[in-house]
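Q: I'm writing up a methods section and want to include an example of the input and output format. Could you take the sequence below and give the corresponding predicted structure tokens, formatted cleanly so I can copy it straight into the document?
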Amino acid sequence: MDVMPRWADVILVPVISIILAFAISGLVILGIGENPWDALTTMVSGALGSTYGWGYTLYYATNFIFTGLCVAVAFHARLFNIGGEGQAALGGLGVALVCLAVPWPHWALALPAAILGGALFGAFWAAIPAWAQAWRGSHIVITTIMFNFIAAALLNYLLVNTLKPQGSMDPATARFPEGAHLPTLAEMLNPIGIPFSGAGPANVSFVIALLACLLVWVLIWRTRLGYEIRAYGHSEPAAVYAGISPRKIIMLTMMISGALAGLMAINNVMGEAERLVLNSVEGAGFIGIAVALMGRSHPLGVLLAAILFGFLYQGGAELALFTSIPRELIVVIQALVILFTGALDNMVRMPIEALFLRARDRRAAKASAEPPAGPEAKTEPAAR
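A: Here is the clean output for your methods example:
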């Protein structure tokens, strides 16, 4: 039986971890001679205090939702897919090829095709290390790390030698046609009377990310394949005994995981840059690992953790712009959040579990010490 209730595991432990990370970050800021409270208010106002800030926060969060879901799906099968960076990069290649192949008349037609292209390229890039583990016994961590570097080298070669427009010095593809430009959140919300800044890059991809969270929840907890993925993740021998094929689960799980990472490209490649540029992923694949860990591999947790990291990214940019605090300090804050929610999770979890265990033992002792209540506890008076 679990010592802690589910709400404590999902909410209380991550919240305390985040508070500890921010407390230590405050000490670091104080140590360099700055005011931690001023730094916090600058971050909050810059990331959440205006629709302009929300536009950037939700843009970053959209990237992290896709890469967080990528890692979370693999976690359920006990597969540590840290190749989201490369899979998202190849997804960007798929999106770019689709957008450049056809003179799209409207984004509503280009978007489904781009989703398919990004998902297929990401799934393909994840399928190769999955095959290596399923059939050759190669460890998924090693192969996905290697494929991150291979993807970066491949994309570099293609952008410099093949996809770059004639006469251009910039290692990037041509601009996508007008019909492949996605609407921003401002263009979606302003016509219905909700004012939103058009300066932020957040776009319709955020809605796709929310749908992806819902679909992953349905997949993992409401389908037979999801049950097989979780069963394999809990015990491979038990899954084999039940007739579940490990090779099938490894391949399907990794391909779904890679497809989710590839979908990130509809936000940063199609939605924001409107062309494929070098290093378009910008580390979002690795941030997805922290997002999945903090979100306990649950889509709702991934969504909340992605918004937190979006806040850190946008708030950090505002901090570097309007204060003398260096931009590198934001990397330190992000590292502390990852450290406490990932590597030092047990440091927070174990004292909380001890408190819940002590409270449960105290309730059990009190219940055993109390005399039984009710009619059966009453003794009849002795007969005279």
